[in-house]
Specification:
single chain, mainly alpha, 2 domains, 5 helices, globular
Length: 156
């Protein structure tokens, strides 16, 4: 039996979801029905990774045809770098908080993916985009839903 691309992708997604569950388990705020806390949204994303990864893996096992190209080195490198950056983001939020770390994450990832795809964007556009994404997420999470985002252990 040969391992197929869908099986590798599905298994990778499941493993990433489990790792994210472990990382968000380090947040100190408990999840309750009155206040789901900062674990809710990343927890939903991690759950989605596990469920979707399991589905992709099962579909890969049932598939009769085989793919020749599993993944290119450049694609694998992008996946590894993105996952490492997301892990650092979660750890950064633990110590520095959402409002400090998120603009840097968004700016860094948009710059990285723009350069990887050959798209030229101006510096000020990426900065404004990173700040806008951070502001929109904060505005939805804090005033609209009445929830807290991590402020960071250094600022508590």
């Amino acid at each position: 039996m040969k391992i197929k691309r869908d099986q590798i992708t599905g298994l990778t997604l499941v493993i990433l979801g489990i790792i994210l569950f472990v990382l968000i388990g380090q947040f100190k705020k408990p999840m309750t029905m009155e206040y789901p806390g900062p674990k809710l949204m990343p927890g939903i994303a991690a759950f989605g990774l596990v469920v979707c990864g399991a589905g992709v893996f099962i579909n890969g096992c049932r598939q009769k045809t085989e793919d020749n190209v599993i993944i290119t080195k450049a694609g694998l490198l992008r996946i590894v770098i993105t996952f490492a950056v997301l892990c650092l983001y979660i750890l950064g939020m633990k110590y520095l908080g959402f409002l400090i770390v998120t603009p840097f994450l968004v700016y860094g990832l948009t710059t990285y993916f723009a350069k990887a795809s050959g798209v030229e964007t101006k510096l000020w556009v990426r900065i404004v985009f990173a700040l806008a994404v951070t502001a929109v997420i904060w505005a939805m999470y804090v005033p609209l839903f009445g929830l807290e985002l991590p402020v960071g252990e250094l600022f508590e």
